[in-house]
Fold each of these.
Amino acid sequence: MTFLSATLSRVKPSPTIAVTAKAQELKAAGHDVIGLGAGEPDFDTPQNIKDAAARAMDAGKTKYTAVDGIIELKQAICAKFLRDNELSYTPDQVSVGTGGKQILYNALMATMNPGDEVVIAAPYWVSYPDMVLLAGGTPVIATASSQTNYKLTADQLEAAITPKTKWFIFNSPSNPTGAGYNREELKELTDVLMRHPHVWVMTDDMYEHLMYDDFEFFTPAQIEPRLYERTLTCNGVSKAYAMTGWRIGYAAGPKELIGAMRKIQSQSTSNPCTISQWAAVEALNGPQDFLVENNKMFVRRRNLVVEMLSAIEGMTCPVPEGAFYVYPSIGGLIGKSTPDGTVIENDEIFATKLLEDTGVAVVFGAAFGLSPNFRVSYATSDEALTQACKRIQTFCTTLT
């Protein structure tokens, strides 16, 4: 009899974290490594946010808080949803957790029963299916294609829904593809959901403020107000505000669901870091002008990476509407061999050999549910991206 829980056999460690850890390990051993695996901006947290955290510490705001967030932060979140998304919530409809991942996990743990299904569009963020499995549910993968720029169609969503479906997890702009759904595309999906009143919607809007080329962001309950009572709108400060390590995520939804999530959190982590909560208040209430300047840099980096990777024979690289990822296909490279005779049978072998031979760390597409691809995070310097793409180009030219 094994000591460990049988539940662990249903899940795997996060591949993105594993790639980042491997890159750090090689770099610490003296190897020349460029890590493009982590979904983390290289910008520092804005000074006004850091100053707010320092003021909170100086004021002695270092004690326990309410389990799912201080009232000041919940009020700031309500103001954000009204300002940015035309959604009206009250503080008792808001939950604050230790990062966006905990918010999603709490919601699943609070609602899933054996046999319940969750529709997830592939390519997907690596943690969605495993969180569903940990919560005792069954992930149902609806695979989008390159022909729709990796966005799920209404017909695909309709086909994936069954009487057992409890949630549809929606992510736009997408991790890993950066694809964003415009108003019309999202309306087609919400029309499907309106025909299935037993299906709830869990949005992951973490990349909301990372949209480019005048692309306009929308969230499901904003497009279809009748979905308001069965939508959990999730977000956080990690990406746009360069606060990944501060670990603050939040969501708003029906009071009963928020109360159930609070119960889960009360018996797991309790409140998020107090200082981080006060920093998040400033992030949401304070100046937002830096977002425009940061996005200009992200657009430049996106264009650099797309241009350099698109120049590789056998590789195609769509232009994403948001986030800070590209998701190139290596369909034209499958079956080729490296100089040492290794056959590129799949994207995992491609990513492994790329790291071993060139020191460039990327995440293989199978981790996101769609191959043959790999994900590049361009949330790093122009110099590092240029050098990394040159190495990828050189590596690909050696394949025969």
Note: The chain has a mean pLDDT of 96.
Amino acid sequence: MTEKSKSTTKGINTRLAHLGYEPRSFHGFVNPPVVHASTVLFPDAATLASRDQKYTYGTHGTPTTDALCEAINALEGSAGTIVVPSGLAAVTVPLLAYLQAGDHILIVDSVYGPTRRFCNTTLRRFGVETTYYDPMIGAGIDALMRPNTRLVHTEAPGSNTFEMQDIPAIAEVAHARGALVSMDNTWATPLFFKPLDHGVDISIHAATKYPAGHSDILIGSVSANEKAWPALLDTFTNLGVCAGPDDSYMTLRGLRTMGVRLERHQQSALAIARELESSAGIARVLHPALESFPGHGIWKRDFCGSSGIFSIVLDVADQDRWKAKSHAFLDALEIFGLGYSWGGYESLAVIANLSDRTVAKAPSEGPVIRLQIGLEDVSDLMEDINRALAASLAA
């Protein structure tokens, strides 16, 4: 990369267009080559014995994966980045990197569901104890720290209900007690929040979402600061969970347009969220950028943007009617697809399952519907949502 393309003084879309790859390094082609690799040849026996060359085997990196990692490093301000085959792998690899039998981990209770499942099954089997904490705890997390607490895992906003966490306050306490801090920052991306600038040691992304951006790739990234990088790299190397070259190439290509896509997602989602605040049949809108949201102050202080996913709480007094009302809402949608994941160009809706919460209880007013706002026209999406709300009210 040239110094010009590295410069952090350039605008974000300028940087996204050039980060990670220098065309002159490969005959001037503007995108990096897709290197499919397992075996890498060595020039002689001495080099084979010493492994003293940049590439030694396909699982340890290729020019394609390096281009993506270098771009993410530049966005995160990290010492190193790994790319792995899914967003869930991006969560589990660092947990395996920093924890061992007898350790204790603190996990925010509004965490991504599969993270909880991994902690409650695999980590438990390996002798690691997990405690779930209130996402609003802030510096109060000090009361939950133990001598053997090695890691505090955060996620802001929280999955499905979008609680905001005071990340700097949590990081200060954790570091004072000798623990590392990890953060699932998939919602904001490093464009709207840079975890390592706020005390986080390990930044995690389901790059399946906004970086890839087209609902056809599974990939994750983990970026670490100088202190946390060696253990992360060591575990990544030992596990061999490397992302494939084609997915890495497509994710880097997605990064080039992530800035303009995120701006559209942000504008559309906020416009829809604001309109839904006064809609009949909705008890609450869960979006951190709304002034009415309890965590709005933290979002405004620490974040510089919001993405395209939020939730609504349907106003259904009779809990026995929650299922019928939410199903009626979803079944009436014509533009929104019914499907998991988010960050792609198309709008999606799902019922949020909050039954696994232990501290951060689910809203009591009604079922929670998570909306991913895609790149369609806002007027068409609002017409679709209003149709669904009418169907829910009538059910």
Note: Residues 245-276 form the longest helix (32 residues).
Amino acid sequence: MMTSTYDDLTLPEGVRSRMIHGVNGLDVHILEAGYEKPGQPLALLLHGFPDLAYGWRHLIPLLADAGYHVVAPDQRGFGRTTGWVNDYDAPLAPFGLLNMIRDALGLVSALGYQRTAMLVGHDLGSPVAAYCALARPDIFSSVVLMSAPFPGPPAFPFNTVGIETPSAQPNNENHKLAAALAELDPPREHYQQYLSTRRANDDMWHPPQGLHAFLRAFFYVKSADWPGNKPHPLKRRTATDLAQMPTYYIMELGKSMPETVAPFQPSDDEVLACKWLTAPELAVYIQEYDRTGFQGALQAYRVLSDPDLNAGLRLYSGRTIDVPSLFIGGTSDWGTYSAPGALDLMRTKAMTKMAGIELIDGAGHWIQQEQPVRLSERLLAFIQETGRANHSNG
């Protein structure tokens, strides 16, 4: 596992790559800009799967130009950050959300800050950012979630005295859903279930079409470039409702993710027209995942699907996020609706100071890559409107 940094040719002007050592047991690789002037307010950007800190490359200079010290880490399990075990059989507890909060806290502290002025989490980075704001609002004084709504922490059963219930009730909701999906015609499988399997890493690391073709198709099919993305709210978390989503979300049972996206391989002309992920930029992803594989990045999905590993989150049962918050999605991103009901729970219960739900035209799942200028405008307007931006090191 390498601990080297990117060369300057890989990055936009003004963005640098460096290692921050000794952060909650990790050596964290970050991309940053706006570091030249001491005391700039800190903007922390947390990526998702199968992204990297590099996914923020278009946004970082825009926020730095607005006066922020912008930092995007490779999260635990990803890229050039080291200190985690790259093995399917490794303990999963280090990849739990509470420990990922500690990763973020440790990084903020290592950088010499007492709080962030802006915290943004995308995809898998969204629940990490949400729990950061839930657990430590004194440090994370505002939060922006992208593509993955936060429905709130898991709750304890309420007012159950006098009701006969088993002393231990296994959480078998996911098993029931998996069985129902498998009974569809054709049989289907939730992508998170697939990503939790032992085979998923090797499937994606060594796909039959090659890593380059797989990643190009995966980024393409989840973007606004693919005309098949027509997301809409789903009524219930049932097999028939979920099956309305594209196959990269609700896969055909038995197919790998590379097999699933292969039919949607973009043409040469479509690749040339893709200005948000050029061939040299895609080459960075290919180099990183060819070196590390995907297992570290997949561990979080295994945690999310294991109720025992999420039991600690019940510490926050009944708690709400009480700092200014915003949700941003892409108009062509199914992520907004992939967990039926989560968007409404976030808006009505999970957050008490929600500025709104904004969908950006011309963006699919990769909002910060597809529409960085529009995203930066919304982020900066949100921080200005909240009046909570920290313009000092604190």
Note: Confidence is low (pLDDT under 50) at residues 388-394.
Amino acid sequence: MNGAVPVNETVEAVARAHRDEWARLVGSLARRFGNLDVAEEAAAEAFATAVARWPTDGVPRNPAAWLTTTAQRKAVDRLRRENQRDARHREARMLHDDTPPEPLGLVDDDRLRLIFTCCHPALAMPSRVALTLRLVGGLTVPEIARAFLSQESAIGQRITRAKAKIKAARIPYRVPSADDLPARLSGVLAVLYLVFNEGYLASGPGTDPVRQDLTAEAVRLARLVRELLPDDGEVAGLLALMLLTEARREARVEGGELVTLDEQDRTRWDAALTAEGHRLVRERLVAAAAGTAPGRYQVLAAINAVHTSARDVRDTDWSQVVALYDQLARLDPSPVVALNRAIAVAELDGPEVALALVEHLGSDLDDYHPYHAARADLLRRLCRDAEARAAYDRAIGLTGNTAESAALTRRRDTLR
């Protein structure tokens, strides 16, 4: 130990250790015991012990080792208290087994095993999100409930059922094999992207329109996956996409209204995040030139790189944006991609051409508020005010984001 330290320094040390070591600790305990409940509770007890002891004993020279030893003891104590059967006692003795563990996948890392376990396709997507935020991100159940505007009891039950399903289905704690990795990794990235998007444009009327806590956590987890899989292009692409989007956060809401990209004060964008995102995109462009075809997240990141490279919206290379959307449409031929491409076409070929493209998407996107918002904007630019007003009304009725609703209402009210 280093000796007693001021309380505020201890709090910072525990918070830093929690941020850096929580996922690694839970993952290593889960691997040893094969039980997520034991892993989670032992890890939580270890951090609670740190909060109680570090102010007087001092912060350990190696906090990670201290937490690991403490958590392992807590896990053994729990098994003993519960008067476990012989099989459970064997699990406890695994703590003292010096035999190297059998390789469990393509990458031998407890955190990565934990991520793939939490994001297993056997679990429903809401369960994957909640379990990932709890066990990998270290968020509490109340924090997750607030993030997604759910009851704490519902989130708790969702996590409990997910852990029970993992146990009942004997879902292994391992990274998938090389053959299975691409398909399974896509599910992990989808979970992180979902978390980020909920923070980027919060869907609930009773919460902040932009949730920095969620976007920051998604970026942190994406960095973790990037650290563990540094050569994967889609991991790099998703991180770049998040960084380039997060860089614009300070300019996205003004006076309670969402500020669209073309109206944002670009001097308020975070230069460091923008530079990092651009660097990742450039790395992927080099890989593409060498024959590695980019995936969906890489193309989305490239589109954002074009937008954030322009000092003024008038300097945007719209022809390149449209070309990238053409590339994205080949990877993801969805109506949403077609809608975003049409918005870019409006800047290149005019609103009338774009509106014709948008109108074809109505049957697929009638309940999707960005469709009606885009259509309203195109109609406004064509001076078709009555139709634009009706489209704005429909978009306002569908959006749950307060800042976006305020911006759409203002635009509607400027019509004649």
Note: Residues 96-106 have pLDDT under 50 and may be disordered.
